[in-house]
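INPUT
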Amino acid sequence: MSALLLSKFKERKARVGVIGLGYVGLPLAVEFAKVGFDVIGLDVDAQRTARLNRGENYIKDVDGDELAELVAAGKFKATTDYGYVRKLDAVSICVPTPLNKLKDPDVSFIVDVMDHLVENLHDDLLIVLESTTYPGTTRELVLPRLEKTGYTIGESIYLCFSPERIDPGNVHYQVHNTPKVIGGVTETCTKVGHALYQQIVETVVPVSSPESAEMVKLLENTYRSINIGLVNEIALMCEKLGVDVWEVIDAAATKPFGFMKFTPGPGLGGHCIPIDPHYLSWKMKTLDYKARFIELAGEINTDMPYHVVELVSKGLNRRQKAVNGSRILILGVAYKKDIDDVRESPALDVIKLLEEEGATVEYYDPYVRTIRWKETEKPGLKTMTPENIREMDAVVILTDHGNVNYDLVKREAKLIIDTRNVYPLNHDAHIIRLGVG
Ligand code: SAJ
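OUTPUT
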């Protein structure tokens, strides 16, 4: 193991690179720079690197002033030039791993990084893959590309996987106080990776292999997807049973052990939970194994937007109205409360389905001014007034943002479909609550 590299990590004299300056990479880069490392941020987007070099921040979880100070002090520099890797002692890869149109893993961003990385390798370099991916990616896709250049992994180049655990908008758990799992291709790799990450994270959790570390992340997020699917199905059952699912869940959550509260909703949004489990089920298919829980949860969660539209149709029908020709206001399009992210948001599915049924659909979301819609922009209502609520045949609450006047909605709306228990234990005739029969 390279004593020089370890001492550079320990004395924080190492030069650290982060590839991919998004919601994972930029906070990580700032964390390394904050504790004293010289950090190079690498990204393919020249506009993004130019903005960063002007000290301009674009990630809500990053403190803009802190970033500007680090840039001014020369502790952080952004670039599109992979040549800088020749001067780095470590590099963390935080590029996107989306699904393609067939819902299969798209690891092209990792491959692109590797194509550039192998041109700039040198002795005493730690490489850590952080992008969420299927078990085996580090060993099957990254390792061969490094070995082909003649380097021996575990002797002059060290390779690990360490899952990112960034929770956008979480003000309590940030990089430094979220335990970091890391698994190296060799024991020495794990030790070298541990030596670096313990400089920025209070707790480093070494595991025996990159596959183990890759699987940790997938277990974490598959656990959420499946439990959300479970409560969504329980909600459908409660509607048929004439029970209030929210009351049931709150009462179940009083159990002080062996139960974790999840709540039903209009579907599954975000860039993690709807995506990550499919990396695991895809890999298992290549091993001729059907990941049944993942597939079933996916079916139930994907079906929720259709169920919301059924509730809208049921409510309008009570007022002898059809969906076709009705004016409907969607309240909240972000994928979860108090954030501005609409990626994979079920609201986009609900809007699409209602428009296909002939409804005229508007939306209001204080965090989302406009959305990309059919190759153009669809702006939301600028404000929510008694007048523009009264004009609507139905209001559909899909995100329970904290800064919306729900009392106004309850007073003025003709019909409300509440999918987030904004109106708990409510029996008003004009309110239909998801999961309540
Ligand atoms: N959702 C429900 N019911 C629930 C919880 C979530 O319907 O009980 C929905 C949300 O509305 C959203 C989707 O599921 O549409 C995902 O919600 P999430 O709370 O899992 O939030 P994410 O997507 O921001 O997940 C992130 C993940 N962080 C990382 O991957 C590093 C996840 O692992 C975290 O556990 C999660 O934040 C968190 O705990 O907030």
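end of record. The chain is about 40% helix and 15% strand.
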